[in-house]
Amino acid sequence: MSELDFFLDKSKLVGNDNQILSSTEFLTFLEKEDFEYVNVPSFNQLKDVQAGEAGIKNALVELDYAIAETGTVVIDSLNENKRLATCLAEKLFVVMPKSKLVSRLNDVADFIEERTSDMGGYVAFITGASRTADIERVLTVGVHGPKEMTVIILNDL
Amino acid sequence: MGIQDKIQEKVNDEILHNNLKGFATSYKASKINAYKGLDFEALRTRVHDIKDRDLSKVMEQFNLFKANVEKVGCKVFQANTGEDACKYIADVMKKHNTKYMVKSKSMTSEEILLNHYLEKEGLHPIETDLGEWILQLANEHPSHMVMPAIHKTRQQVAKIFADYTGEEVDPEDITGMVLIARRFLREAYFKAGVGMTGANFAVAKTGSIGLVTNEGNARLSSTVPPVHIVLVGYEKLCDDFNQALDIVRVLPKSATGQIITSYTTWIKGRVPSHKNEDGVKETHYVFLDNGRLAFLEHPKFKEALKCIRCGSCANICPAYEMVGGHVYGDRYIGSIGLILTALYQGDAAAKDILKMCIGCRACSFNCPAGIDLQSLISELKLVVGKKYGINPIKEKVFKNVVAKPEKMKSLLSLGASFQFPLTKTNKSNGEKIISKVPLLPKEMDFRKFPALSSKTFTKLFHKDGYDKFTSKRKVFFYPGCAIEYFYPEMGLAMVKLLNKSGIQVDIPKSAACCGIPAIASGNPDNARTMIFNTLDRLNDVEQYESLLVLCPTCGGAIKHEFLDFTSNDPDRYKKAVLLGDMVTPFGKFLEDNKIHFKVKGNKTVTYHTPCHDERSLNYSAEAFLSSVLGKQFTHLTDTNVCCGFGGTYSLDFSTISNGILDKKIENIVASKAEILVTDCPGCVMQINGGLMHKKVPVKVLHLSEFIDKYVEQI
Ligand code: SF4
Ligand code: SF4
């Protein structure tokens, strides 16, 4: 199994929608969809909003790393609005340049260390929607945060 | 309420029973899946190594953490007691003039009864973990460390929510209930002046914490309010992110059978926070001692501080499954709960609950931090047994009978001669049993008791002339009490079989108990006498190939407990080490010596793996039986889960013992086997007694008898 297949497998397991697109297809997708919050530096796409109690409909963010071992996306969320958006969006879309895929959890140890070395740091591992099984162990999504998560994998970056 | 009443109440709680039973089954399957392709032993050894450190190392980690966060303007408070921690947290809230604090789940806050303290101060902590919130509204405490409300049904939750919200709640609609929580708790994040979280990790290298959650409530609690308080025990410190990530690799897999949780969050100190005047979060770290630091220096109990709070020692504990976490534990729950109750709250709080451990050792082999939990529980049982005394009748029997082998022999032979008015032949299998035990309380009447054998094993051994040694090949056999007094036929079957292969069997000059009954009851002084008796009666081993046992509990005692109890007696210790190395379960001896068999007849057979075979002697006869029997062998679901015997445990905690046995019998019936083989006389006594009581026509045989009757040597 390739590393990407491994990632896709784990990501699917937690209920994520995974889409593999080329950069051009992604730009077409961007035109069609309407996002309330966007933070995709690789395409210079930024749209800022401070999500509040009512939450926001959706958010699109680019990840820093993806981890094949667990199907996890790693997002530096020090920016408060980015943190609020990823916590409070009903639907979370994550953009993943394929080159950002690493194989093991420990491969991001240095990254976390670097990002938490100064005054403040906030590195999030996200693997699926917000979930609970606290009532009769029935798996239910969207207890506090996003109810759905989509990973858009850019296969040419 | 006394412990027995509490147990009774929980055992009768059908909702709890179904929830825990369902969970135990599904948990095991998902855990196996989550660890697929990984080397669990290697992973947990790694966690154990990371956490293996003394007080000075922990303080070194702490000082580095502290320097890192203070440098950037965070506050660090070292709380000696729970009360100190509570007060500090209340003061922070008061200083910020806020009545509300949102909290993500923290067992440490349960430990110090934080909510209780804050409420007395007129402050309002709001639990944001769904399970914890449900319990907070219901004014209860968690019954599981990871799934706090596992004892509640959807209908009960609907009622709690309806009472709280004043809204109508559909008692079947779990998604609807989750959305209610989402709505109410969302409001709470925004009105709270302070957010509190625990920490799964405190990473010294950069002064960061790591939080492992599924709901995302810790993210919101640490993001939305302007102030963040972290309450953390010193044992959560680690050096760097590589260590923390090695623990992340196992924690969710062991906790819920997930490969990873939805969120793992790494936070360092002063992040942007628009609600603060200076635009930066105010962060406080409360490091809690509350008695833990002292134990970092203790040679054995320091192990308990390696716990990563996955909660799985409850998930696989057969006794927990019967009674749940409101009885099995206190503030902390499951096997580790028994231990931490004793260490943090004191032995008086733990003395009753420790006894509920049946000693199956499942927890020791399951812990992702590699903690030998059962040994710690056993150690603590001895401590509280000595300090508070044990059941006086038991103590007398141990002291005056079991610890005096000659007295025991004459008393039991008297019993064997005079029991006949009480005995009868059990119809279904022709075995001699006690027809009615006089004055037996109803709850203990869940299995038939075997009659004492009219002649002891030792007597029959000599009578049958097995004591004339001619062969070069000799093994030594320790029969133990069960075979000596109840089941000599198991021992004789083995002797006969080995003789056929030219291997002669020698036995102790006279019988003595291995001490396990006294150890399990927390009675160290009599245990020591019994162990010395046994050691002194066992021959020097040099002339034998092996020390064979048919009771793995006795074998495990010789291998492990004998060492602990002889550590101050060099001669006996040396002998115990030599003997321990030679202990071999009978099945393993047959396999090692390549004695081959083929099956006679066409009966379907299944196998129960005794706890101490697998987890004290590292052996199971399953592969052996399955290769001899081929298609006639059928696997028993949960074969290695305890049968509920535990010696006198089955009388002291008969309701739990019976509940565990019921599950075993369910699985035996489902296997459709005609014969159940096992290789422990205690398991035979329990399972056979239960099957006879329920009139289930499955024959139970010790491995040695089974081989004698149903297979032949080739
Ligand atoms: S003692 Fe081991 S199994 Fe129990 S909660 Fe702690 S880490 Fe998990
Ligand atoms: S040894 Fe068995 S009964 Fe005792 S705590 Fe561990 S799992 Fe539970």
CATH architecture of chain A: 3-Layer(aba) Sandwich
Q: How many alpha or pi helices of chain A?
A: 4
The CATH class label of chain A is: Alpha Beta
Q: Give the terminus-to-terminus CA distance of chain A.
A: 21 Å
* Range of strand content of chain A: 35-45%
What fraction, in percent, of the residue positions of chain B are helical?
Answer: 40-55%
Notes on the protein architecture:
The complex is a heterodimer of chains A (157) and B (714). By secondary structure, chain A is an alpha/beta fold. Chain A contains 4 helices and 12 strands; from the N terminus they run αβαβββββαββαββββ. In chain A, the strands form 3 sheets. Chain A has a 6-stranded mixed beta sheet. A 4-stranded mixed beta sheet of chain A has the order 8-5-6-9, covered by helices on one side. A two-stranded antiparallel sheet of chain A has the order 10-11. In chain A, a hairpin with a 4-residue loop joins β2 and β3 (45-47). Chain A is globular, with a radius of gyration of 15 Å. The model of chain A has no long low-confidence stretch (mean pLDDT 95). With 714 residues, chain B is of the alpha/beta class. Chain B has 3 domains: 54-293, NagB/RpiA/CoA transferase-like (Rossmann fold, 3-Layer(aba) Sandwich); 407-585, no CATH class; 591-713, Rossmann fold (3-Layer(aba) Sandwich). In chain B, the strands form 6 sheets. Chain B has a 6-stranded parallel beta sheet with strand order 1-10-7-4-2-3, sandwiched between helices. In chain B, strands 8-5-6-9 form a 4-stranded mixed beta sheet, sandwiched between helices. Chain B has a 4-stranded parallel beta sheet with strand order 15-14-16-17, with helices on both faces. Bound molecules: iron/sulfur cluster (2 copies). One iron/sulfur cluster binds at residues 317-319, 335, 357-363, 373-374, 377 of chain B.
